[in-house]
Write a structure and sequence with these properties.
about 575 residues, single chain, 17 helices, 25 strands, about 40% helix, Adenine-n6-DNA-methyltransferase TaqI, Chain A, domain 2, four-stranded antiparallel sheet, four-stranded mixed sheet
Length: about 575
């Protein structure tokens, strides 16, 4: 594929998912394959350039400016990584520059280190986030004594720095004489004019070098390994054209990336303002928000991630009573609440559930928003019975039985992963554990997870098909909410996924950032907006229908991205094919 054809595909490639990052990688790949700029038959071939490099190297050695290489040089490249133009030549890194390590002066010697600017000393950590090709210094400087008293070396302007461990692959060019620690295997090019092309090559080769590196505590490449890396050597004049073209295209990538980011930020802002307006108390505001979403739908929902915001807005509308119209003929929630209390008292008398402690009265000052007519603020514990799981011991598990333990990993939002690392208990233990038996219509809830990520409080409603196999028993840190009717449980399964309720519940979570816990008392005391039973059924039906539409939209967008990714793969393969 010609450089002109690549230019024709440039903007198409940038628009696919992660396209700009892939485009940057492709630019570097085409650069070192000789496919980024046209060849000029008048260029002095690489074979002549190599002779000049050798002569320059011998001169530097005679003058005592560099040492004779301790690493292999002149080793033939037997297996070519890829084809290169006729005027190019395969050599080794050790043939075009001196591979130099670094060192760390003893930290206990105060006269080896200085707070003033003396001899810059770099570690790989100093190159984190380095956006410029050139680097002047790191966070610390050493003295001449520190340089002389360690294996650190003062390297000249134009040295190509390459981090060889912790991590492998940071690349930069020295703007001034400097030194490094032992985490580098840098290349002092025998011809300074080659430094920028060497930088481009190492930037392209870094992932492959890292993939082939070895190590126990951390991966590392040795100076010998770096010296033996096959290096595609172009004519010097073509190197300059390659560097100029790479710079031009990378600037274009930066510009495209900035435009994409600005477009995405505008889309996110517009999406957020529209979705937030949907929950406003003013009906005209809500209507206007729906109109803006409808008019900008293709812009707002052209990637799968944005659909999740739409899902959450649907849940927010549901929990605030704005998803379906109210019917004044519906039996109000206050009547439903009395029926639930009567049912709970009956179950306590029959010994089917234990009497729970009285819940504190609703504090109207904590009510987050006004409910529609017919709804009631209640405590979650007013409308359900809670049961915690059993601390089954792992040494009691058996390879298989008709009794499966449902653990945290088995519960995800609306998904009971029966076959996810199943564990079983013997029949005898199951016989003693009937209090922890899970039934149809139970709402399971995870109560432990990573607090900082808020990736817990998953809920799933147990369905009949979940119970076709083994009996299911509740493990510790998985809670069970049992409701008086299926409709109430279905509604709770919806409401507990809304940001309104999640925010309040997570505020009361305890534990550390890595281990967050939701307490049963805090959960049962949580404010819960209770709709009339008839409206609950309408809400669940509407949510199910809208979520199915979101699933369909997300699947189509994901498929579109996959298709775009495959298209890019095909274009890239054609571009880099020999």
């Amino acid at each position: 594929m010609t450089p002109e054809a690549f230019a024709d595909h440039f903007h198409t490639l940038a628009d696919v998912p992660n396209g700009i990052q892939k485009l940057r990688e492709l630019i570097l790949q085409l650069a070192v394959q000789g496919k980024l700029v046209p060849q000029n038959p008048k260029d002095e071939p690489a074979s002549v350039l190599l002779e000049k490099i050798k002569a320059k190297k011998e001169k530097l050695i005679r003058e005592g400016k560099i040492r004779k290489s301790r690493y292999p040089v002149g080793e033939p490249v037997d297996a070519y990584p890829h084809k290169i133009p006729n005027a190019w030549q395969w050599v080794r890194m050790g043939d075009i520059g001196s591979i130099v390590g670094g060192g760390t002066p003893k930290t206990g010697k105060g006269d080896y280190w200085t707070d003033s600017k003396e001899i810059p000393w770099l570690t790989p950590a100093d190159m984190v986030g380095q956006s410029s090709r050139y680097i002047k210094r790191g966070r610390r400087d050493i003295t001449q004594k520190g340089l002389d008293g360690s294996s650190a070396q003062l390297m000249p302007v134009g040295t190509v720095l390459f981090s060889s461990r912790a991590p492998i692959g940071y690349v930069g060019i020295a703007m001034n004489p400097l030194s490094t620690n032992q985490g580098f295997k840098s290349c002092i090019s025998y011809l300074k004019a080659m430094a920028e092309y060497i930088f481009i090559f190492l930037s392209k080769a870094a992932p492959d070098i890292n993939a082939q590196a070895t190590g126990t505590t951390f991966k590392e490449v040795s100076g010998k390994e770096v010296a033996l890396i096959p290096f595609p050597l172009p004519p010097l004049t073509e190197q300059k054209r390659i560097v100029a073209k790479v710079d031009q295209l990378m600037v274009l990538c930066d510009d495209l990336e900035a435009r994409q980011q600005k477009r995405n930020e505008s889309r996110i802002t517009l999406n957020g303002s529209c979705l937030n307006a949907l929950t406003a108390p003013d009906g005209d505001t809500v209507k206007h928000a729906w109109n803006r979403i409808r008019e900008n739908f293709d812009l707002l929902y052209d990637c799968p991630e944005n659909v999740n915001a739409l899902r959450q807005s649907i849940l927010q509308l549901a929990v605030q009573g704005k998803l379906v119209p109210q019917n004044p003929k519906d039996e109000p929630a206050s009547v439903l609440l009395e029926k639930v209390k009567t049912e709970k008292e009956k179950l306590v008398k029959e010994g089917k559930i234990k009497k729970q402690k009285p819940l504190p009265p609703i504090d109207l000052d904590e009510v987050p928003y006004e409910l529609p007519m017919g709804w009631e603020w209640v405590a979650l514990g007013d409308i359900c019975h809670f049961k915690g799981g059993c601390a089954f011991k792992s040494n009691s598990y058996v390879p298989s039985s008709g009794n499966q333990v449902i653990r945290l990993g088995n519960v995800k939002n609306n998904d009971l992963l029966i076959h996810q690392k199943p564990v079983f208990i013997p029949d005898e233990l199951a016989g003693y554990s009937q209090d922890f038996l899970i039934g149809e219509g139970d709402l399971l809830i995870t109560m432990t997870g990573t607090k900082a990520k808020r990736d817990y409080l998953f809920t799933v409603l147990v369905k009949k098909e979940h119970l076709n196999g083994p009996k299911l028993f509740l493990n510790q840190r998985v809670g069970l909410l049992r409701f008086s009717s299926l409709a109430v449980g279905q509604t709770a399964n919806v409401f507990l996924k809304s940001e309104t309720m999640l925010d309040r519940i997570f505020t009361r979570a305890t534990g550390t950032a890595n281990q967050g816990n939701i307490g049963s008392t805090a959960l049962l005391n949580e404010l819960y907006p209770l709709p009339p039973l008839s409206e609950q059924k309408r809400i669940v039906t509407k949510v199910d229908r809208l979520m199915a539409l979101c699933d369909d939209l997300q699947a189509k967008l994901t498929q579109s991205q996959d298709d775009a990714g495959r298209l890019m793969g095909a274009v890239v393969n054609e571009l880099v094919a020999a």
